[in-house]
Amino acid sequence: MIEIRGAGVVEGDVTLLAPTSSRVAQGGALVVRGPNGSGKSTLLQLVAGLRVPTTGSLIVAGDAPRPRSPEFRRRVAALVATPPLARDLTLAEHIDLVAATWSGPGRHVAGGRVLDELDLGRLATRFPHELSSGQQQLFTVALVLARPSEVLVFDEPEHRLDDDRVQSVAAAIAARRAAGATVVVATHDDAVEAGVGGDVLHLGRAAA
Ligand SMILES: Nc1ncnc2c1ncn2[C@@H]1O[C@H](COP(=O)(O)OP(=O)(O)OP(=O)(O)O)[C@@H](O)[C@H]1O
């Protein structure tokens, strides 16, 4: 499902990601670990098609990542940076928007359950700016989980979350995996690694 073939990124004289190889089967998970600056986010950006490798290549869901391709976007959902949120849409309305976008003939996306799954249901009528920073983080995770995907990519989903919420997020990701999704997660948190399961890829500190 995902093949990372010696993929690396160099910009000028800076190595963002040393050449890296790994493989994840459908329904599998790759947990990316490593110190600050080792290239975890860069690797996830490659998988999500937000960056192009300067060496090596990747295959994600059968093809090179192409973020403008509707087919690629239908298959790959990623949280690798804070997404833009509408100030005048409630949490439930954001979820409805995502569900409506990805629903279609023969496809019904039930996004509403995601808020309850992450214990955000009681905040459904709030605006995003009326959330705590941890609740905002949970909500950005919910937005990714609300849409259909075959591949899920999360960069440090534990950011700003307390231990219970980290467990909830890890369980939600593991549930998608159990349903057949392939998962790539970068994390500094042992609970995320344990909760998501799968293989662990350790990145070392980049040379420059
Ligand atoms: N736009 C950029 N231009 C130049 N160097 C960059 C750029 N973005 C990141 N880097 C460098 O690339 C390296 C890898 O960064 P990256 O964000 O992928 O690391 P990370 O493992 O995700 O770190 P963290 O654990 O702190 O999130 C770092 O040394 C960083 O300083």
TrEMBL record:
Gene3D superfamilies: P-loop containing nucleotide triphosphate hydrolases
Keyword check for Lyase: no
Record InterPro entries: AAA+_ATPase, ABC_transporter-like_ATP-bd, ABC_transporter-like_CS, P-loop_NTPase
Organism of derivation: Pseudoclavibacter endophyticus
SMART domains: AAA
Name of the featured protein: ATP-binding cassette domain-containing protein
Residues in ABC transporter domain copies: 2-208
Alphabetic keyword roster: ATP-binding, Nucleotide-binding
One GO MF term: ATP hydrolysis activity
Domain of life from the UniProt record: Bacteria
